[in-house]
Sequence to fold (765 residues):
Amino acid sequence: MALICNARSRAARLLPQALSALPVIGRPNAPKSQASLGNEPGRRLASARAGESVSPLSDECSNQVLDFPGGKLMFSPDMRFLSGSTGERVSCYRVLDDNGHRISDNSFQELSEKVAVKMYRDMITLQVMDTIFYEAQRQGRISFYLTSTGEEAINIASAAALSNEDVIFPQYREPGVLLWRGFTLQEFANQCFGNKSDYGKGRQMPIHYGSSKYNYFTVSSPIATQLPQAVGAAYSLKMDKKNACAVTYFGDGGTSEGDFHAALNFAAVMEAPVIFFCRNNGWAISTPTSEQFRSDGVVTRGQAYGIRSIRVDGNDALAVYSAVHMAREMAVFEARPILIEALTYRVGHHSTSDDSTKYRLVDEIEHWRSSRDPISRYRWWLERNGWWCDDAESELRSSVRKELLQAIQVAEREQKPALGELFSDVYDIIPSNLREQEQFLRHTVKKHPGDYPHNVPA
Amino acid sequence: MDSNPRVCVMGEDVGHYGGSYKVTKGLATKFGDLRVLDTPIAENSFTGMGIGAAMTGLRPVIEGMNMGFLLLAFNQISNNCGMLHYTSGGQFTIPVVIRGPGGVGRQLGAEHSQRLESYFQSIPGLQMVACSTPYNAKGLMKAAIRSENPVVLFEHVLLYNLKERIPDEEYVLCLEEAEMVRPGEHVTILTYSRMRYHVMQAAKTLVNKGYDPEVIDIRSLKPFDLHAIGNSIKKTHRVLIVEECMRTGGIGASLRSAIIDNFWDYLDAPIMCLSSQDVPTPYAGTLEEWTVVQPAQIVTAVEQLCK
Fold:
């Protein structure tokens, strides 16, 4: 109970500050009198007419007021088209400059040393993990891999600002969130090798992690399908009045999908506690954002749906942490969706099936890899606080590397899933037709052992 | 919805409007507009929403205003609904019910006369049932909601007005079982949904002509109740399938294939299948009537089969 009260009062304190900083929010919505966790019967059933808009006009200009479904508004005799762009781009929230110095008089969510150091350790672990698994794919030991290089701050800092009860609907470039929650390097390796110990039982490509234990929903390859699912989960959490929200991640490319549009629209209408986290890393495989949309990035789209939105420097761990922390409080305690656009850069190739030097300049990639690296920037701030040093750095990197190589070896040697797993979990209980198909397959394998891999247990 | 607070309904106009065919009438007033949720028009997305809600512990009943609109939800239904239990290694279940009116109505035009069971039958992980009477509609709906698997429940646009005395108390029918409508000796007629009524009408004529048809409403479209179907074939040795699906790639096509695989030795004649032609359903009343299997055709087919 105390925790919730504190959080609310903190939200109440920081909220006006956060809101006033943004010119786009003029009048706050008519506040609900009760906390919005409940199932409010309300505006929708109560009104038999088409609903009123939320901000009523004053009565003074009543002779220039029009009344249509959606509410009253002013009319104008001048024909003026709204410009497609606002001229000035929405500004970007950051806490640290490129050298890790606090840009003074910014507010940000304070971190304890414990959390701050864990964030750094996990960012390094993610980076090393990406390097080694990528190499493993190049050596032919796993069939596929996809890195999060350059987006470590987004991965770890956002995860750190959430609670373990918040349900995550990832795209595929967010293994750091799972790492933060406790997924081990061995567990990552098992999934990539699709062995018997993989929680997915070898059914998905590498990097399609999933863990019900950590509330991280299994990655599904098609783009943006997870967005409406996250809204559904938020709806479920709201019905159960849980102190949790849904969080879904997606890239700049994903915002072109129909599911993005509908998910944001639904979430706004339903007042669902969901955070839409867009990793705008500039590239959707070979499509740059200039060919993906003509809006000012993704943040402006939130307003179109009536969703509170913010643009943050995705390579600034403290900014990401603060924004997600605040977003979560708003989502949970006000039952509303929030859109966060984190600007960043995809330093690696799209995946191991891609060579991005074919469509972008090597200089550009190198620039972001070195001088705009989110990890170094955060480390400088950490070191200045006296919370990190070179010895700790080399010790961490070598121990993670060692643990990873070990995990890969173990995962590689582990048996593959048994033949029966081809047919289980299609339904809750194996139906007779699948049982027949399984018998037939077993019979075939038995009869032609030379034609089938022998390291698969029966 | 009374007995389990996790059951909820989502779809277009299901709330205060009560649904385009009034299936959810009165529910929003009783359970509130969060449990009976009116969604914006985006089938792929509210189906996705239902999937996300199911993965988080709810039991959503997702309504397609017309089954044909669920073609827009094919991605979510195939790639996520059918697959996520499997690809997550059993960690997440998706106990959704996807339902709605389908089939050929009265001059609704091609886009509102789709037979989605043809398109969905191939999706692994899904279960499909078709109800045809008030009695089996209640029993199958309850069973579908209680099932841990995603179930697609096919209702028919022209069957909503049927009236029947059904038990007040709770009963649940088995999702995988077919229904024996009329036992007989001469020929097995397999059908489902609205065609059951055309078959029964033809049966009256057939009985007058001295035939004894066995009519089975297969109800379970995926998987087929091969036990009941097989028992019947072993008795009559002749099969006629009457369906509303198109000739190509419909339920009849799969059923024929399954019967040949399993009961070839028991057949005394080739399997006959009466289906709609491979054309979009026209609007004009006469044309529409010609595209749906009529009782007279069924009578002729049985006479031919039993020669």
